[in-house]
Give the backbone structure.
Amino acid sequence: MQSFISKIKESFRGEVRLDEPMSAHTSLKIGGPVDLMAFPEDPMSLQNLLVMAGKEKIPVFVLGGGTNLLVSESGISGIAVSLRAFRNIRLAKGSDDKSATLFVEAGVPLGKLMSFAKENGYSGIEPLTGIPGTFGGAVYMNAGSFGTEIKDVIVSVAVMNMEGRIVILGKDKLQFTYRSSNLSDDLIILSANILLKKDAPGAVAARIKEFIGKKSVTQPLGEASAGCVFKNPEGDAAGRLIDAAGCKEMRIGDAEVSTVHANFFVNKGKATAKDFLELMNIVKAKVEEQSGVALMPEIKIV
Ligand SMILES: Cc1cc2nc3c(=O)[nH]c(=O)nc-3n(C[C@H](O)[C@H](O)[C@H](O)COP(=O)(O)OP(=O)(O)OC[C@H]3O[C@@H](n4cnc5c(N)ncnc54)[C@H](O)[C@@H]3O)c2cc1C
């Protein structure tokens, strides 16, 4: 990797770190080192990095806020790219006195977008309040809450492919399903335009407060987790099935099924990815045995 760094030095603006522990970049605080973590400061640097990585056949992984990831102890081979420097939000063309089109870059923390919407009186994403991570991660995952998903406000998405080419994908080219999209792992989301309605800032703030209030009693927000471990099966809740299968509080090493929300598994201290996966397998088997439902993971296992 040292030779890779020397090769891109002239054409890359931003920080690079060798053997960076992923545990420092995931909300679960689990994960071994990535060979190289790169924090490009502009699209050109990202482009140069991708082109060089392609030439050298080095795999590239895109890291958002790391709030939906379970990374193994062996870490990630290749490069993890963080777009944390891409954090602009501004009003885009197509806004009028009733609606606002916002241009939002991928590295914007979702919480920052929420504050921007609150301060300026833009409505439409209030139910997503409390979802951690970045805007790019939310688009990739089609993050959602209380019946609203990020797809509901997306107008277009700008992506860069692994050859460094930027393409704008309009609604006709985008397909979002439950916690998933057709944005493949070979595409890096740079930004998206979202359409929100104008409303009084006080009214937006009141709704945000209401949603965060609901979340704070139903989710273990102060503990290390990656959100929901399994997807909700059609017409049911994974948390309810896990609870019904008697798995609440089940523990392997320091990985534990949360006492607050059974579909959140928490790291009580020194949990490893192995503990976490073992717990997932046991819970999945118990739920299948008890209810016949085969749960599918929502978290991304890297
Ligand atoms: C306490 C807690 C509560 C949560 N509540 C919810 C909830 O209510 N609803 C919900 O949907 N989720 C929830 N989550 C899960 C998680 O926060 C979301 O899935 C979030 O959108 C992930 O964003 P991220 O930036 O952290 O992505 P990461 O975890 O870093 O990455 C997730 C995936 O997105 C990809 N990705 C990230 N950024 C980009 C990019 N710019 N371009 C291409 N691919 C990219 C990654 O490669 C990876 O495959 C919760 C998590 C926690 C810890």
Notes: The domain at 89-218 is CATH 3.30.465.10 (Uridine Diphospho-n-acetylenolpyruvylglucosamine Reductase; domain 3). The first strand starts at residue 14 and ends at 21. The pocket of flavin-adenine dinucleotide is lined by residues 27, 61-69, 83, 106, 131-134, 136-138, 140-141, 143-145, 179, 188-189, 219, 221, 225-227, 300 (CB under 6 Å). Helices lie at 2-8, 43-55, 110-120, 135-141, 201-218, 238-244, 273-291.
